[in-house]
Amino acid sequence: MRQYFGRKLLIYGLTFFVAVTVNWMIPRFMPGDPVASMVARARVSDPAAVAAMQQYYSNLFGFDSPLISQYFNFWGALFSGNFGISIWAYPLPVADVILDAVPYTLGLMIPSILLSWFVGNWAGALAARRKLLDNTVLPIGYVLTAMPYMWIAILLCWGFGVVFQVLPVAGGYSFAMQPNLSWEFVGSLLQHWLLPFTSLFLVALGGWAIGMRNMIIYELEADYSNYLAALGAPHRLIRRYAFRNAVLPQITGLALQLGVLVAGALVTEIVFSYPGLGSLILKAIQNQDFFLLQGTFLFIVLGVLIANFVIDIVYVIVDPRTRAGMTGATT
Amino acid sequence: MTTTDPITAITAPDPGTAPISVRREALYFAVRNGKLLVGVTIVTIFLLIGIIGPFLVDRPPMEYVGLPMLPPSTEYWLGTTTFGQDVLAQFVYGVRSTFEVGLLAGGLSALIGMVIGFVAGYRGGLVDEVLNMITNVVLVIPTLAVLLIINAYLGIRSVGMQALFIGLTSWPWVARAIRAQTFSLRSRDFVDLARLSGVGTSRIILREIAPNMSSYLFMTFILLFGSSILIASSLDFIGLGPTDGVSLGLMLNHSNQWSALHLGLWWWFIPPGAAITAIVGALYVANVGLDEVFNPKLREL
Predict the structure, then answer these.
(1) Nearest-5° angle of CA B50, CA B52, CA B53?
(2) What distance in Å separates the CA atoms of residue A44 and residue A289, rounded to the nearest whole number?
(3) Which end of chain A is more exposed for a tag (fewer CB within 10 A), N or C?
(4) B133·A34 Cβ contact <8 A
(5) First and final C-alpha spacing in chain B
(6) pLDDT of res. A115
(7) What architecture does CATH give domain A94-330?
(8) Lowest-pLDDT range, A104-118, A151-165, A191-205, B141-155?
(9) Separation in Å, CA of A313 to nearest CA in chain B
(10) Three-state SS for A325?
(11) Chain A interface disruption, residue of B36, B46, B128, B141, most A CBs within 10 A
C-alpha cells in the first residue's frame, strides 16, 4: 500500500511540476509579445508612457533577469502565495480574487459530481439486461452525454429563466442583496444554485449510466456469475456481486473524468454568470488578465490533483486488493 | 441471422481467404446493425451539410446581410442574429469547421496514442516506464485548463491550431488502452515467430500487432473524434475559438454574449447545440454498433 501511494504521489508531484513549468514557459516562449499586447490594449499614445508601461510589465514578469533565475523566482513567488496582481480587479492580488470564487465552484461541482455519479450508477445497474428499462435509459444516456455542457445550461436557462420565469438566470445570489448570514440570503443562494447544478448533474448522469450498464453486462457474463446462476443463486444476489465488481472501474473513471467535469463546470458558470472560477476565466480572457488566468490554471490543476488523491484513498478503502499489495487500481 | 453465410465463414477457416471472409462477416453484421446504421446516417447527413452547405448558402456567415433578429422564414431559414447575420450561413460553415476539428484533433491524438501505446507495450522495460510516466502526467492534468492558457496567449487562432493543441493533449487514455492490449499480444506465438525471422520492431507492430486490434483502433478514433468536438466547442464558447472563421461553439458564444436568451432568439442558440449533440451522439451510438459488429459476445441474440 505504501508503494501504491508512493507511486501516486510521485505522479502527482511530477504533474504539478510540469504544470507550473508549462505555466511559466507559455508566456515566455509563445509567439507574440504579451507585454506589447498589454500596452497596446491600454491605448496610450505618449511614447514616454508606453516605455514606462513596458518597463513596468517587464519588471512584473521579471523578463529582464536571466531565464534560469526567472524560473526559480517563479517557484519562490508561488510558494509564498504570490500569484501577482490582477489587472481586471486591480489592485487586488490574484490569490484573493481566486479564493473568493473557489467556494462557488466547489459548491457547484462537488454535489453535482457525487450525485450524478450515484444516480447514474444506480440507473445503469438497474437498466442492464432489462429490455424495457434498457431501451429508455440507454438512448437518454447517449443524448445527455453527447450534449455540450453549455448548451444544456443555455436550454435550462432559457426554459426556466426566460420562458417560464420561475428561476433566476444570472449571478450567485440576488443583485439586491449583500452577502450575509441570513435565511433570506441562503435561500437566494440556493435559488441561483439550482439551475447550474441541474445542468451539470444531467450531462454527467448519462455517461455514468451508460458506463455502469456496460460494466454490469460484462460482469454478468463473467464465469463467477454463470457459476452462481448454475448453483441456483437468486438473481438479486448475482446482480449485487456484479455491481460490486462493476463499481471499481467507475471509481477510476471518476478520476479520469475530473478534467472534463471541471471544464463543464467552467462553461456552465459562464452561461449563468455564476461567480465561480469559470466567470473569472472569462473575465481574465476578455481583459487579457494573464496573471489571473495563470493563477486560475494552477488552482484548477491543484484541485484536480487533490481530488485524484482523495479518489485514490477511496479506492484503497473500497478495493481490498490494493491494501494487500496486489494489483488493483492502475490509475 | 437467417442466412448461413457468416457461419460458414467462421466454421470453414481457409487460410488463403480468411481475411476476406472476416471482412464479409463484419459487413454482414454491419448492415444489419440498427445502431450503426442510425449513427452513420446522422453523421453522414451532417457531413453533407458541412461539405455542400457552404456552396448552397451564398450569404457570407459573418456579414450583416439582413434586418436584425428576424425569426426563421423562407428567406432566412434559421433567422438572423442581433446584428442581422444569417444564422443558416453560420450554421453550415460551423458544421464544416466542427468536422475539421474533430477529424484533425481526433486523428492526431489517435496517432500519438497509438505510437506511444505500441512502443511502450511492445518494448517494455525502461522505455515503458518513462512513457507510462509521461502518459500518467498528461492524463491527470485537466486538458481544458492547459488549452485555455495556450489559446489565450495565441494571438491569432485558427481551426488547425486549435485541433493541433487538442490533439496534443487528449491522447493519454488511448495510449494506456493500446499499451495494455499490445502487452497481451506481444508474447503470442505469431509475434515470436516474426521476431525469430528477423523482422524489425516497427514492422512487427505495423504488420503483426496493429491488424489484430484494427477494429479497436478504429473505434478509439471515433471516440476521440466525438470528444475533440466537445472540447473544441467548450473552448469556442469561453471565447478562445478560431479568430478567422465561425464554428458551432462560437455561435453559442456569440448568442450568449449578445443575450439571445433574454431576447428569446431561440433560432440562434438551439441549432448549433443540437447539431453538436446530434453529431457526437451519433458517433457514440455508431461506436456501440461497431462494437457489436466486431465483438460477437455483444450481439443481441
Answers:
(1) 65
(2) 18
(3) N
(4) no
(5) 9
(6) 95
(7) Orthogonal Bundle (1.10)
(8) B141-155
(9) 16
(10) coil
(11) B141
Establish if B16 belongs to a structural domain: no
pLDDT higher at A329 or B141: B141
- Which chain B residue has the Cα nearest residue A307? B140
To the nearest whole Å, the CA of A11 is away from the closest chain B CA by 6
User: Which band of pLDDT confidence, cut at 50, 70 and 90, is reported for residue A62?
Assistant: low
Q: Is residue B2 part of a domain?
A: no
Contact A14 B133 (CB under 8 A): yes
Chain B residues with CB-CB distance to A211 below 8 A: none
Q: Are B251 and B91 in contact (CB under 8 A)?
A: yes
Is the CB of B145 less than 8 angstroms away from the CB of A15?
no
Q: Indicate yes or no: CB of A293 within 8 angstroms of CB of B148.
A: yes
Which chain B residues are within 8 Å of A263, Cβ to Cβ?
142-145, 231, 234
- A22-34 burial, b at 16+ Cβ within 10 Å, e below that, comes to bbbebbeeeeeeb
Count Cβ atoms below 10 Å from residue B70 Cβ, excluding itself: 18
Report if pTM > 0.90.
Answer: no
**A-chain residues near B136 (CB < 8 A):** 11, 15, 331
Between A85-94, A216-225, B111-120, B273-282, the lowest mean confidence (pLDDT) is in: A85-94
In tens, the pLDDT along B51-71 reads 998 888 877 777 777 777 778
Q: Which domain range does residue B283 map to?
A: 22-298
Which of A87, A147, A150, A215 has the most B C-beta neighbours within 10 Å, making it the best mutation to test the interface with B?
A: A150
Answer whether B155 touches A (CB < 8 Å): yes
- The domain spans of chain A are 94-330
Query: B273 vs A151: CB contact, 8 Å cut-off?
Result: yes
Give the distance between the most distant pair of CA atoms in chain A: 89
Decide if pLDDT at B4 tops 50: no
CA B16 – CA B60 distance, rounded (Å)? 55
Supply B266's cell numbers: 431561440
B5 assigned to some structural domain: no
- Residue A262 and residue B139: Cβ atoms within 8 Å? no
- The region of weakest confidence among B1-5, B44-48, B293-297 is B1-5
Q: For B124, what's the count of Cα atoms within 13 Å in the CB-facing half-sphere?
A: 8
Number of domains in chain B: 1
- Residue B79 is assigned to a structural domain of this protein: yes
Residue of A nearest to B232 (CA): A148
Which cell numbers hold the place of A126? Answer: 438497474
Task: Render pLDDT for B270-289 as a digit per residue (tens, 0 to 9).
Answer: 999 999 999 999 999 998 88
Which residues numbered 130-149 in B keep a CB inside 8 Å of some CB on A? Answer: 133, 136-137, 139-146, 148-149
